[in-house]
């Protein structure tokens, strides 16, 4: 693929070059990513769309240091993930990356406050759990357990947990995938508000094409490659989007 994702304006947070991922199995090789080139600007919001199996989650996981590429380069502010040791990758995930997944991944036996504290206790310069929860509109639910919260509220706890460490990079894999549309809007509003406040570079993977309207740029993936990148002249708020 050509460097169609290359950018020269603003500061580049992530420089991705020739990134490939092959999963090898007895049934044959799966080329999940095929030589992806992409520049991601500091503070921008990207939405990644594409059919199932097009490589969106694989790209997110590699950029988040959860998985390793088979070849190619991914540099985050000069830090090369491809050659990093396990210790360096762990430090990178801890310090720089917030993750939000489809199924919340909260610890059921801990309250909202305690779930957020799990992360703030190991972060370098975190917000207080109470502040993070207030920012996502859960100031009155801090001592509730996940089972006492709706799906949308649980996902907002997950957003609070992800942003409490003031991450430079926020990675969201289908954050509204298991929510009704009103809860989904609330979760996206929380993501948009807090990423603006902490200035995080944000990547959102979704099957929901309506979400594209909240992005600075929309990345269309297909067969492990970037098929197209579109720039939005203006960004919609989550409440303005139809989906
Ligand atoms: N651990 C793995 N082992 C083998 N193959 C894998 C593994 N993880 C992903 N794949 C394959 O890599 C390809 C890309 O998967 P990926 O999950 O990145 O796609 P996706 O676009 O995120 O899909 P979805 O929208 O369904 O989540 C798929 O063919 C998938 O089956």
TrEMBL record:
| Coiled coil (residue ranges) | none
Q: Which residues form the ABC transporter domain?
A: 14-243
Q: Which UniProt keywords apply?
A: ATP-binding, Cell inner membrane, Cell membrane, Membrane, Nucleotide-binding, Transport
Report the SUPFAM superfamilies cross-referenced here: P-loop containing nucleoside triphosphate hydrolases (SSF52540)
What is a single Pfam family found in this protein's UniProt entry? ABC_tran
What InterPro entries does the record tag this protein with? AAA+_ATPase, ABC_transporter-like_ATP-bd, ABC_transporter-like_CS, MacB-like_ATP-bd, P-loop_NTPase
Gene Ontology terms for molecular function: ATP binding; ATP hydrolysis activity; transmembrane transporter activity
- Please give the GO cellular component terms listed in this UniProt entry: membrane protein complex
Keyword check for Membrane, yes or no.
yes
Its family remark reads:
Belongs to the ABC transporter superfamily. Macrolide exporter (TC 3.A.1.122) family.
Protein name per its UniProtKB record:
ABC transporter ATP-binding protein
């Amino acid at each position: 693929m050509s460097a169609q994702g290359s950018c020269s304006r603003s500061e580049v947070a992530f420089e991705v070059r020739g990134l490939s991922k092959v999963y090898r199995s007895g049934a044959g090789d799966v080329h999940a990513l095929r030589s992806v080139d992409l520049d991601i600007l500091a503070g921008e919001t990207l939405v990644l769309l594409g059919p199932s199996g097009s490589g969106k989650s694989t790209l997110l996981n590699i950029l988040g240091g959860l998985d390793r590429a088979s070849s190619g380069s991914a540099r985050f502010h000069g830090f090369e993930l491809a050659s990093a040791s396990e210790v360096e990758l762990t430090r990178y995930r801890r310090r720089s990356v917030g993750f939000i997944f489809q199924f919340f991944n909260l610890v059921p036996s801990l309250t909202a406050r305690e779930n957020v504290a799990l992360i703030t206790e190991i972060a370098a310069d975190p917000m207080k759990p109470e502040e993070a929860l207030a920012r996502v509109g859960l100031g009155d639910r801090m001592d509730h357990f996940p089972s006492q919260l709706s799906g949308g509220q649980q996902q907002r706890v997950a957003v609070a947990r992800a942003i409490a460490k003031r991450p430079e990079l926020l990675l969201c894999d289908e954050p509204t995938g298991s929510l009704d549309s009103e809860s989904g809007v609330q979760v996206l509003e929380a993501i948009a508000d807090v990423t603006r406040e902490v200035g995080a570079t944000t990547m959102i993977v979704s099957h929901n094409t309506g979400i594209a309207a909240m992005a600075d740029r929309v990345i269309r993936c297909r067969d492990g490659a970037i098929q197209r990148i579109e720039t939005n002249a203006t960004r919609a708020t989550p409440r303005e989007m139809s989906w």
